[in-house]
Each structure stands twice: as structure tokens, then as C-alpha cells.
Amino acid sequence: MLRKINGEFEIIPTDFYLKFDAANIRFFGMAPYTALFSKEVFRIVASNGYNEKADDFSMEFNSVPISFIINVILKFLGPLAFAIGIY
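^ thats the sequence. predicted structure below, dont judge the formating
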């Protein structure tokens, strides 16, 4: 799988957030918060040894899961409550 960076497609590193599960033929992963309100373009290349086919798709990250929001709130409120003495 390739990722479009600065107009060119590059191979995705193994530690990238999006992974491919070949056994179930699906993609999975969780984008980092830095990807919020961005668009990623990917290219998938399939080959059977003789023929090769490529297709592009894009993903837009426009929403945040509620678990992420709660995690961020707790990350800041915990130390603040401890400093104030409420904890």
C-alpha cells in the first residue's frame, strides 16, 4: 500500500497507523489526533504475479470519538484537581 505525500506515492512504513489484515481482507487502525481535519490519499496495488492493478482511495478525518474527548479531559482535569486539593 502506498500513501500520497507531496504529490508522490510512497511506501507506507510498518509503524503507520493504518494496517491491512490479509486474512480478513480489511484495513484497520486509529488515526492520531494530528490527522484531525486532514485528508489522506492511498493507493492499493494488487498482483497475481502476471497482472497488476492499482486503485486510489482517500480518507477524511473530520470527527473525534467520545472516548478520545473523555481521555483528553481526564488527562488535564486529574492533575489540576490534585493541584487544587480536590483529589
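The CA atoms of residues 10 and 46 lie 16 Å apart.
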